Structures are given as C-alpha cells and as structure tokens.
Amino acid sequence: MLELPTSDRTVRVRLVDTTTLMTVRSEVLVQPVQPGHEILNLTDVAFLIEHEGSNQKVMFDLGTRKDYWNLPDAVRLTFDQFMPSVRIDKDVSEILRECGIPLSDIGSIVWSHYHWDHIGNVALFPPSTSLYVGPGFKAEPRLLPGFPDDSNSLVPADAFAGRDVVEPDFADGLTIGGFRAHDFFGDGSFYLLDTPGHCVGHLCGLARTTADTFIFLGGDICHFPGIIRPNAKLPFPAHIPTEALDKDPFFPTPCPCSLFAAHHPRTKDEPSRTPFYEVSSYDATAFTDPTVAQESVTKLQEFESSPDVLICIAHDTELLRYMPTLNDSPSSDLNAWKEKGWKDKIRWGWVNELPRGGRPGRKPLVEGYWRDGKIWEEAVQTLRRN
Ligand SMILES: [Zn+2]
Predict the structure, then answer these.
(1) Distance 20 CA to ligand 1 centre (A)
(2) How far apart (Å, rounded) are the C-alpha atoms in residues 217 and 48?
(3) Class for domain 11-231+278-384, per CATH?
(4) CA–centroid distance, residue 61 to ligand 1 (Å)
(5) DSSP string of 266-278?
(6) With 90 as the cut, is the pLDDT of residue 344 above it?
(7) Residue 43 alpha carbon to ligand 1 centre in Å
(8) Position 52 confidence tier, pLDDT thresholds 50, 70, 90
(9) Where does the Metallo-beta-lactamase domain lie (predicted)?
C-alpha cells in the first residue's frame, strides 16, 4: 500500500505543451516491438510549479529547444538514427513570455534528466534562475563542463554559465513509494524523487495539488503508458470507453477489451492485467540500466494504482488531449484533476497507438524534420555534418 506523506501545503501545477511532435523507433524505448508498432508517437510536456505560500516559480523540465541543429555534436550527429521525424515550434521561454510570465520570475529549473528533449535552452533564462540536476550528474563523464568545452559532452555549457547548479541531497532518509525523496520547499508541497534507470540523475516530481492529492511528474521514467497499463490493480475494463477511442470503423461500439488483449505482446494468460510493454533492453535502448529502470516502473505502478495520484509521463500524448495547457489557457491549472476525472479520461487512450489488425494504429504524429514551421529538406545532412 502506497504511503504518501501528509501536509496541507500545496503547489499550483500548470501543464506546458512544449510544441514538440516527434517519432522514435520503438526498440529504443519499449520491448517487445510488435509489427505495426515499430514507431512511437511522442509529444513532450513540461510543468510550471508555483509555491502557493511564497509565489516561487519552478519549471520542471523545459522540453526541447526549437533550434535543435545547435545541440552538442554528440547528440546532433546521431539524431536521425533514433528519430525519424521531429517538429518543434517554440521554446518554452517563448511560451512563458507569451503568457505574461517574465523569465526572471522562474527561480529554478529542474531537469528530470539531461536528454535533449527535456533540457530546453536554459541559456535563454537569466543567471538568477538556478538549475537543479539529479544524483550523480556532477560526477558523470560527458556532462560538465558541457559542450564545446568538452567536445564529447551531451549538454551545452551555456546552460550552466553564471548560474547556480544544484544537485540536491537525498541522504536524509526520506522515501516515498520506495524512491528517495527531497522536500523541495521544505513544507511537503513538492518533492523530487530519485528514480534511477533511464540515465544518471533521473528525477521525477511529486506535486501536492490538494491536501491529499498529487501529480506525479514522470519525466522519462517510462515513455509509453502501455508500460504501466493495464496492471493487476487497474486491469482493462470489459469495454474500452468509447470516448477514449479514435473514430475508426475498426472499433466496434461498445469495444471489448479483448480486441487489444488478444494481441498482448507479452502474455496469453493474463493479458488484461499485465502491462503491454517493458522498458527496452535491446542494444538500441535509451536506458542506461534497463533492469533498474524496470524496478522504477514497478514502483511507479503503486502510484498509478492510487486514486489520489495522477501520473503524467512527459511523452504521453493523452495528456494534451484532455488537460488544459499554459499555452492555450494560461489561467488554468491541473490542481482539480481528481474532481475533473482526468485520471480516468487519460487512462486508456494509448490503446489507439496499438496495431489494428497488424497495421499501425495511428499515423505518425509528424513526418520529416521541420524548421521554422516548414519541412526542412536538408535536415539530415546538416545534422550529420562534422
Ligand atoms: Zn524524453
């Protein structure tokens, strides 16, 4: 049984659509890969966290930078091996400014981890904005001092220049749901969780949205909801809710869950109670330690089974289908998620991505590489240029 710490202090949580559409080869992120689902469609969200008492603002992740051709060489040169398509329209800094939030209001940025699609472009924020990184980040080779000072670094040096880079302490014994926790504001309103496996220093956030409800900011603890769903505590319902399904004559009304469960890629015995995928341990995996990452996912399932916790993994496309964003509705936050029933609404939409009769479920979210709102024909040769 998941035990959540008590407090009456909360943070306001707003969802930021980082305007990223991308496709990634499934084997990089999930296993087993099945015919018709060789490519994952990914969106990418970040979160604006606001401490209710002090008005301090924190960005949890920054998504992508729109000028992805300026990424460090080690990232740029291998880009197209894993991602068949990418489109990014705006930097998060632009989105904040358009909503009337000066960048100087952002006291801190937390990187869930150092991968390019979460770190944004920190250099666009003033030096007064501090940067939080996870355990082990500062000691890891190929990170600090950053590119180009270290030509092999995976992160840009200008993210760190002139600002405080903080690796918070997780050694005081606080744990939540089996993860080491850091109480960010010291009052139980917002925790960082040490969630290892994807890469060194991977963090999740746990934001208290009311006295007894939380949003779990998942980063890349996993990339696809079918890694945690269905499960023994939240099995498939007999029928998948019609509103969760795309309009397609392939789906009968009502739509029995057996339409999907009968093609479960991992089990024939309990297909309605077993997640469809695990984290990838193929050679191409993006996880530095798939075994540890899968353990983190198992712990995440305990949070998922609590009616008081809404799980938001960064690349879950369903989040943007149902929940308001800072982009479109700056005054709307996610704090009333339980009242609004969003956990139920977002739960099963991922089945639309599964193969339908051996064919891909959904079309790619985006095709080709984009720049300035248009297809960028020279992208691959430019990105690979030494
Ligand atoms: Zn990611």
Answers:
(1) 11
(2) 11
(3) alpha beta
(4) 10
(5) S-SSSTTSS-S-E
(6) yes
(7) 9
(8) confident
(9) 43-263
Residues, Cβ < 5 Å to ion ligand 1: 117, 220
Cα 263 to averaged position of ligand 1 atoms, centre (Å): 27
**Predicted local distance difference test score (pLDDT) of residue 357:** 83
Q: How far is the CA of 220 from the centre of ligand 1 (A)?
A: 5
The sheet carrying 20-25 orders its strands as: 39-42, 20-25, 85-88
Q: How far is the CA of 294 from the centre of ligand 1 (A)?
A: 16
Q: How far does residue 129's CA lie from ligand 1's centre (Å)? A: 22
**Domain-wise residue ranges, the chain:** 11-231+278-384
Instruction: Report the alpha-carbon distance of residue 83 to residue 73 in Å, rounded.
Output: 16
**Residue 7, phi then psi, degrees to nearest 5:** -175, 160
Give the residue among 349, 343, 109, 336 at the shortest CA–CA distance from 225.
349
Q: Do residues 288 and 200 touch, judged by C-beta distance below 8 A?
A: yes
Give yes or no for residue 248 having a pLDDT over 90.
yes
Dihedral sign, Cα of residue 258, residue 262, residue 265, residue 266 = positive
C-alpha to C-alpha distances, 366 to 39, 145, 147, 370, 374, nearest whole angstrom: 11, 34, 29, 9, 12
